[in-house]
Write a structure and sequence with these properties.
115 residues; Rossmann fold; single chain; alpha/beta; two-stranded antiparallel sheet; 4-stranded mixed sheet; globular; 23% helix
């Protein structure tokens, strides 16, 4: 069995990693990116919440704190508070472990618009 899938009563429970910035929130393009100024994209949050409600394991992950490791705890608390404020349903938050990249190519990737 694939390690990323759990079989529950003939139902496949997916483990779903969801990026935060530019996926469930955005920023004013005229300003430098400041995480505390992130604006929720409710339609995208609703799509992820639906997956959670269907029983899938939702893990929000972000590069916040990857480069500025000394601010990782600050970013974690800010991000956790934002997810709560925005009504995000999830199982865990993984912050600062996402690799820094410009493009990811993967056979299992979907853009939020495809959900």
């Amino acid at each position: 069995m694939n390690g990323s899938l759990l079989l529950l009563n003939c139902y496949i429970r997916m483990i779903v990693y969801v990026d935060i910035d530019e996926t469930i929130c955005d920023y004013d393009l005229d300003l430098p990116r400041e995480y505390h100024l992130a604006r929720p994209i409710q339609t995208n949050i609703d799509k992820v919440n639906k997956l959670y409600d269907e029983g899938h394991n939702i893990i929000y992950y972000t590069a916040r704190g990857t480069i500025n490791k000394d601010r990782r705890e600050e970013y974690y608390q800010l991000t956790k508070g934002q997810l709560l404020e925005w009504g995000c349903k999830y199982d865990s938050l993984d912050l600062g472990n996402k690799p820094h990249y410009d493009l990811i190519i993967c056979d299992k990737s979907k853009r939020i618009e495809e959900l």
